[in-house]
Amino acid sequence: MTQERNVRNSDPAKVYEAHEWLEKFYHHILLYSKGGEHAKEYLNNRGIHESTIKKFRIGFSLLKSDVTFQFLKNKGFNYSTLAENKVLRRLNNGKLSNMLRNRIVFPIRDYQNRTVAFGGRSIDKDNKVKYINSEESIIFKKQDNLFGFPQAMEDIESLGYAILLEGYFDVLKAYQNGVKNVVASLGTALTTNQALLLKNITDNIVIAYDGDGAGMDNSFRSASILDSIGCHVRIAHLEEEQDPDEYISAYGCDTFMSEIISKANNVKLSLVDYKKQNYDLTHATDRFDYAEEVLKGVFKGYKKGDEQVLKKLEEILDVSFSSIQQEIAKHTKEAYK
Length: 337
Known about the structure:
The structure is a single chain. By secondary structure, the chain is of the alpha/beta class. It has 16 helices and 11 strands. Helix 10 (213-228) links the parallel strand 9 (204-207) and strand 10. The relative contact order is 0.07.
């Protein structure tokens, strides 16, 4: 009982220290060891430069967990303490495991620029679980952190807006091409705490998630959270289901900024355009279903400044502006003026 109590009351400073040592260890393996050559080649093939690898302290964890265990032991860390604080994983059979083994490692830093967790990308093509994050711990709550946040803070403040992306590689590719006001939400839907983290330095957010259906649906969910805390949100749309990493690789970052980010629409205009692709508007039934779905989105949080959205609906549906106004009034109990 005494040993368990000591473990559970472990000093968070030791957990931070363990993450700092692991970050150095994995980074060294990637850049300077034979064991990291395959991972380094993978990053090079993805277009990630060595300067970006160094800036974000990207690393690689070897397949054999024993190497990591011995490194941590040599630095004076206790295995039980590390397992209790989710630095290592204890399996059901009682054995310890390094969940990041055989993965490229992305350090996740908090707003104070302390490494609190890691993301891992498998380089085994047969591994169906491509990405994982560290388990939550005394120093890490996924809902409170954004990948790339400390690196982006200065540029977000100076430019006056943030670009919210989905993945590690989206952030890395944009950053190394000069777009540095970029962050990602750790592969999950944006949380209120993540949104508040952004709002601390800017009210203006452009969401540029993947261009597929899941990415766009996630864009609207994230926009709703950002809107609820008072942010001004625009949504960018990438055609042909590309993600920002792929788009920048194909067309360059200047085109990404001029054709994707600069042309991002407010949330309701984006909804009107995006939902249109799900319906055949030459058919009366589809026109009705489309109108019903879109108008529900327009009614939600309807404001006087939404005239542009209503004009867009008028154009698409060939329904008079006054008829749309009447629908708005009926649903909001307040006539549009």
